[in-house]
Amino acid sequence: MHGTLPEVTGVSIAMNDTPTTTAPSSPRMKGDYFPVEEGKPLTLGPPRRQNSGTNTPRVRPTTLDIPGLTKSKVSPDGRIAQRDVGAKLVIVMVGLPARGKSYITKKLARYLNWLQHDTKIFNVGERRRHEKAVPNVPKEPEDEAMEQNSSFFDPDNTKASQIREQVARETLDELLDYILNKGGSVGIFDATNSTLDRRKMVMDRIRERAGPDLNVLFLESRCVDENLLEANMRLKLNGPDYRDMDPVVALEDFKKRIKVYEKAYVPLGDYEEKNHMPYIQMIDVGRKIISHQIKGFLMAQANYYLLNFNLAPRQIWITRHGLSHDNISGKIGGDSDLAPEGVQYAKSLAKFMDEKRHEWDMKQIEDMRKTHFPPQPGDATPPNPYYRPQSPTAERPRPNANTSAPNGTSTTSSATDLSALDEDYTPKAFCVWTSMLKRSISTAQFFNDEEYDTKQMRMLDELNAGVMEGLTYSCISTQHPTEYAARKRDKLHYRYPGPGGEGYLDIINRLRPVIVELERMTDHVLLVGHRSVARVLLAYFRGLKREEVADLDVPIGMLYCLEPKPYGVDFKAYRWHKEKEWFYEVPNFELKRAEDDML
Amino acid sequence: MHGTLPEVTGVSIAMNDTPTTTAPSSPRMKGDYFPVEEGKPLTLGPPRRQNSGTNTPRVRPTTLDIPGLTKSKVSPDGRIAQRDVGAKLVIVMVGLPARGKSYITKKLARYLNWLQHDTKIFNVGERRRHEKAVPNVPKEPEDEAMEQNSSFFDPDNTKASQIREQVARETLDELLDYILNKGGSVGIFDATNSTLDRRKMVMDRIRERAGPDLNVLFLESRCVDENLLEANMRLKLNGPDYRDMDPVVALEDFKKRIKVYEKAYVPLGDYEEKNHMPYIQMIDVGRKIISHQIKGFLMAQANYYLLNFNLAPRQIWITRHGLSHDNISGKIGGDSDLAPEGVQYAKSLAKFMDEKRHEWDMKQIEDMRKTHFPPQPGDATPPNPYYRPQSPTAERPRPNANTSAPNGTSTTSSATDLSALDEDYTPKAFCVWTSMLKRSISTAQFFNDEEYDTKQMRMLDELNAGVMEGLTYSCISTQHPTEYAARKRDKLHYRYPGPGGEGYLDIINRLRPVIVELERMTDHVLLVGHRSVARVLLAYFRGLKREEVADLDVPIGMLYCLEPKPYGVDFKAYRWHKEKEWFYEVPNFELKRAEDDML
Questions:
Q1: Which of B1, B5, B269, B373 has the most C-beta neighbours closer than 10 Å?
Q2: Which one is the CATH code of A85-307: 3.40.50.300, 3.20.20.70, 3.40.50.150, 3.90.550.10?
Q3: Cβ contact A424–B24 (<8 Å)
Q4: Which of A15, A23, A66 sits opposite B404 (nearest CB)?
Q5: What superfamily in CATH does domain B316-371+382-585 come from?
Q6: Contact criterion met (CB < 8 Å) for B35 and A73
Q7: Neighboring chain B residues of A59 at a CB cutoff of 8 Å
Q8: Stated pTM of the model
Q9: Which of A24-28, A140-144, B444-448 shows the lowest mean pLDDT across its residues?
Q10: Which range among A581-595, B86-100, B380-394 shows the weakest confidence by mean pLDDT?
Q11: Which spans does this entry mark as compositional bias, Pro residues (chains A, B) (predicted)?
Q12: Could you tell me if B300 and A308 are in contact, meaning their C-beta atoms sit under 8 angstroms apart?
């Protein structure tokens, strides 16, 4: 390892071609925390070359890679270097149908891509559906669960399972091509993978093609909570096969189908632990998480993100500050206060949020009333386990006027007294987050402190323009033409020169804890940001492509609403009407590219 | 909840004084993800007031509080407000003796304090030892495990256990005083708490005094891995009671004592899950972690940190860049390159690291040879499960010259050929991390790319002095006397004015991912930082007090080495000798305050 190592070309490699013994010298997977037990692990693939010769590839450390914030010879842009296979990650999904695998997969991929780690989902079911080379190939159990002929997916039906395995292998190979040859950093293998045999096949194939260094994480979603499982299954009932069926009959039918796959299902656990394989098992989405031998920066990042999952219904609002003095003069950066129109905007905003918040509460109570177990026709959709089911009236405690109101006053029912509508209903808290800049703080000045929790966060500050702070774009184009051109060429990767100068990658990095917090919390929140901040936040929630982020059209006066749902995120946009001092929804709103590409 | 709510003074409170029923309206703990099951949870304490009247305290959201980066009316400094009991955290440790509880406790408290969240450990055993009011009170099982009279700690000995419970309660009350009355944010209750009865007592007392909002996290350390457990126990054998005993006899003795506590031990799990109580169970330090109903920002932070624990032996080196041109002229900030003396420093550094790295490898191989199971007298201490035990010679594979070296060459043994010394030994990778500033990058220029993995990180950049960049301190004192005085008054909380201007709290915040990464990785690392960065890094590893951080004496030319050990962190310091171009250890080195308090 040190400079004076004698040349022993070939010897050490040859040494490792001897049959593997059961002794501790058997190859250890990188990052294993404990010595490998006696007996060769089944899924390690080809033995690891040891570092005893100068010309054998050495084990490279895999440490944090943050695009824009880290840099090395092999990775000048901070992305994971193609060479560093050991820093890349394959995530293998595991789980029975209706356990929310695809939901988790999509969300995780969105997060990792937003962090600028190239991530792609490889879905076995989708490949099969579009497969032309293998005609009449049966679908994944997951798809089939929605169809009539469930016997075809019985594990005892060997012919069908052989064909399925072939398609799974092809999908996996596509994933490995992406990781090994096409610059991908994370590949997610989305299929049920609920049998040990399938998982062994997957590991063997990965080790065969990628060697021992590539990190593999098994990620399972399990449901122990019967209500959650029922809610998940009911979500499936909104699919084409069941939509017009009596939901009670449909649910029974669907449950029968799942039973078929349960026959050969082995949850993650004993086998993986015995073989030192990293895994994460999410139980009841965010209730309980088991993390086993997490290693590598990306795996730790994914784990942290998954730990903060929840499905609580709530709203996330995003807007920019009201019109500021610098907005009028066209200067970038700075810390000017609101212009009169901006103050007007701030007033409308507080009022409109009051209204929307109340509207949401009313809708929530209504939805809760529409949720039954077992489901009934016409039930609120999509179902959500957080909609607490209404209990039968007989079991509900009614306030007893004699004991509970000693002064003789009874609770009066009014339109705004939510507890009178449903005494079990606890309205959510509502957070208002601003940056630490005046124009943002002032935009939140009319929110009632008793009803809203206002907080300032430096992470939400506008992109720092370094030496260009206080200039107009036309100034920059004449005084700093080279910088102007460089920014125009690649705004996402451009960083303003001078102390404190930032670029979009810096904004992503400092918004990362904010995003994780938004995922973690269960309250409503309004973020009063700035152009770059609003762009980066929307890019996360809308899963925008990398090249779209820095050019997004996010004008002053727009208010965006994101509502996480079991199937994704509902998105609405409202435009402020200055004269009416009110917001109006923009129908069928879609984010688009800004017309002025310098903004 | 909305402005027009009718006044129903007292009614809603009175309503909640009715006997609690078994129906779903029973109080839910804040942040519970799922409806409380039928039957009142045992440990919820007084029922939660509902939000049905305007004068009942409403549930406040607990979102991220980052000192220096967040701000609100109730928390102008970003610390957790005294009012926000729901944002505070009590951590209750659980675990049998010799499971590393105190190690985890100390490390976690060090991390949280470093993040500026006031954290304190309340150790039941320590209190008992110093207890004057209750003379002759027996010790905690944990202490007793080291003593002779183990029958005294038998759970069947009711009198002793009553006295022990009393001291536990007093310690807990002290913790609650700290959280509720003395501004503390996190209190850690360090005791075995291995029985259900004890844990119920703890929860009841917390709910009784703090109400339902205060977050409580149970944190257990379990050892399933026999080698790790044995290593932990052997660490105890270095204590005063066993030091001079035959280690084999001592170990047997210690094991017998632990058996006593196992009688009434109930690990975290079923009971806590049934009662919706958040917990984290660490199994085999970092191998496997179960996180249950983690809620609140602080709990999520603690969870993330604990997930990245490992005990791998390795070295963490910290130094500042070599002398730069700006150092000579006394200018702060900027991006000047190294002066000739700085280049000389860079050369010495690369050579010295080569030497120290090799020395460490040799020591490691030697330690591994000295580790036996069962332990033998004279074994290397402290034991570490990462020191792979040497297998009996008979089971060790020896390279067979006939099959492994087809060219007839045998492996030659040389002083530097580590694989010849121990063919199982894989030397660790070595990372060199610099900032993105020239003087730091240049200081790492002589490290061999084949042997060291060099990476630049923006997180390691020097504190940005905003508008003061490029000035000398004497300039600042004359041109900006108010700023000069403000910084002198409170350097830790001072932030330089102007775009990008930073303070020490910003440095802590941007080094947080670096610290977590240092805890996560198992390789050696050298960090080539700057004054503020080195101060903040050392503050973390040395657990410095808040007021010490910003005034630490960290001159150019010093090199610090931190080596995590099972009992803490070994700390050494080396001083560069310019003429000899080499580093020499400073005996009994202690960090001290800088003489010039403006630096």
A1: B1
A2: 3.40.50.300
A3: yes
A4: A15
A5: Phosphoglycerate mutase-like (3.40.50.1240)
A6: no
A7: 426, 429
A8: 0.84
A9: A24-28
A10: B380-394
A11: 374-386
A12: yes
